[in-house]
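During the reporting period the student researcher (J.K.) took over the structure-prediction task from the postdoctoral fellow and processed the backlog of single-chain submissions. One of the processed entries is reproduced below for the supervisory committee.
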Amino acid sequence: MIYFSNPKYSFIKNKKEILKNISNVIDKGQYIKGENCEKFEKSFKKFLNCKFVVGTGNATDSLLLSIRALGLKSGDEIITTSLTATATGISILNSGVKPKFVDICKKSFCIDLKSLENKINKKTKAIIIVHLYGQSCNMDYLKKICKKHNLYLIEDCAQSAGGFFKNKRLGTFGDLGCFSFFPTKNLSCLGDGGAIVTNNKKLFEKVKSMSQYGWDKNRDAIYLGMNSRLDEIQSAILNLKLKNLNKDNIERKKIAKNYFKSIKNSKILLPENVKGSNHVYHLFVIKTKRRNLLLKKMKKNDIVCGIHYKLPLHKQKIFKKYKSYLKNTDQISKEIVSIPIYPGLTKKEQLKVINVLNDF
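J.K. obtained the following structure tokens:
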């Protein structure tokens, strides 16, 4: 069976070193806020070329903490995309502010920046930009919009670890960047894990405090905080996996290049890359108007695909009161299919995927 993602492969490949790192954590006896987390935060900071990193329990917490750190009020609005994981929108609701959804571009699936700017009003205080599937929108244009309208920018980098726009790492454009280390991600651990990155010292100090109950150095709670920490075992694994991130992303790009070159079927549309964006292909997402038939054919040939995402946020019950008409999002969500892409996907497996698609 060929799966659209196979996190087991990378862990089995590095099993000996991973077990050694876990064993070291167990032997040392400090399982939260120890040397491994500190090492990862420093290494990730260097990798991204940013000033501050805070390890968190997961990317959903990272988004929630980031929004809360901005000090927004009830009635304020945050603009984001509807074609994203539920976590993006749920973080906005849990922070006590309102989401406003914007349509996407037909070919790249990234947020439509012209539509975004048209949605800005007096209540708009921030934008959460989602680097969907591993690539960004035009970040130069987005930064100009934020500056023009005096808006905060949060980057949802759950799917884009290691990606660039031009020569700058994703996650370092905004006021805050939020990462996920869920097992399927480009940079992954053996459970939940996340991080917040920033170049703003005040925001860093605030999210760091808020991630641990809102404590100051005397353990006096000065903010409304929570418990969201990256533990030592996950940190130890991430220290190992971070060393291989660039290499793994290059492998993803090679697979994508093979797909672009070899998939030739008029009933299947391939994704389009944004100019200036260095896509790291967390997912390779195609479109077809006959999705159910394609999924059946793929499954019959032992190829398991995914759909990211079948139900956009504005169609989910909790978000329906924030009424949105998103023509492209509605249409695209009915056509998208995530086909297999991950480090370790063999040439033989890639050829099988290509042949089945071309035969559809």
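The committee noted the following: Residues 245-262 form the longest helix (18 residues).
J.K. will present the remaining backlog at the next meeting.
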